[in-house]
Amino acid sequence: MSLPPQPLSPLDGRYRAAVQGLGEHLSEAGLNRARVHVEVEWLIALTERGMFGSSPLEAEQARALRAFAADFAQPEIDRLAELEATTRHDVKAVEYLVRERLDALGLERVAELTHFACTSEDINNLSYALTVRAAVAEVWLPRARQVVAKLREWAERTRDVPMLAHTHGQPATPTTVGKEFAVVVHRLERQLARIERGEYLGKFSGATGTFAAHAAADPEADWQAISRDFVTSLGLTWNPLTTQIESHDWQAELFQAVGHANRILHNLCTDVWTYISMGYFSQVPQAGATGSSTMPHKVNPIRFENAEANLELSCALLDSLAATLVTSRLQRDLTDSTTQRNIGVALGHSLLALDNIHRGLGEIAVAEAALAADLDGNWEVLGEAIQTVIRAEVTAGRSSIEDPYALLKELTRGRRVGQAELVAFVEGLDIGAEAKERLTALTPATYIGVAPALVDHLGE
Question: What's the pTM?
């Protein structure tokens, strides 16, 4: 017995609730709505210029035509499916759908201006620019900003909480929890600003980007100006030099920027997972949740693991999109057509990761007792401070110690050194009294430099 039709992608099945906002823009229906919008606006633009003896539409007619695009819904989706079953061409089906609405509105007189002098890619490239821009601005970026805001809260709240750092996986100069979260915030904010500044380019120049059909129809018209005005009227940047397709460089730039943000988030997930495994962060049990099907004690860091995997999937797709879309054989091939249909999938996996990270950050807490215990068990990290102070004392003429680094290396390298041993060592040093006082008062928990103040750089 076979199953009823099922979604093949988990984004349309198990995880649909977390990513459904993208479907408003990057689904086939969202693309077709944008196509109708572009076709309608082009027809209106031509009539407003009185091209080929046409006259501007009456205000109510223009309003009704634009409402047809804005209100695009299931009836239009179904009708397009019927038309495409005959045309075997998605954009031609959109043209016929618009013509049908013109007939219904009594606008048969301008029907031949539908899709006038357009190649399919004139419609498609503008539609993709509009849908991707809307998806990024209205769905992906707001979710990313929510995660950054949550990370900023963590940075501010834990700015003074000391934590043993680890370089190469080994105990290192202490930091604070908040400073480490601030690093992630700073990195992400740079990438989000880069994404926000991104251009969305559009071309509207015919079959091979030459305006040949346009010029044949009206040699006197300034078709470049008409094209530029039309593309910019949609809020896009006009690209004057293309083949049949817009070159997709803006898409590659966007996908690389989102991929970079993904990788920063991936770094966050692996670090938080590690801190959980080290006991630095505790997980807040969720009512009714099961960590393991056989080990009742477990609370697994599933939010960060899920996010990690989805960020990897997203990056794989975004990298492929960025690499594939910038190449087209001669004046065009169709490799971009099926590739671009996966933009929503690529952003969807990133959006799912953002959702899990945001939820995961609300399900962990700092284990301050564990942090304090680890700091107290690693007094040898003060070796850096001691040898640096000795160097300063030698330079100031208050000490004659030779090779302070080697001295501390002999004392601390590869071995545990407790507070009493370090204090006794400092007391026996040939350095000034004030320096000794500073060093003997120092503890791993207070050896954090200006880490708390570094959090104040956020927002600069």
Answer: 0.94
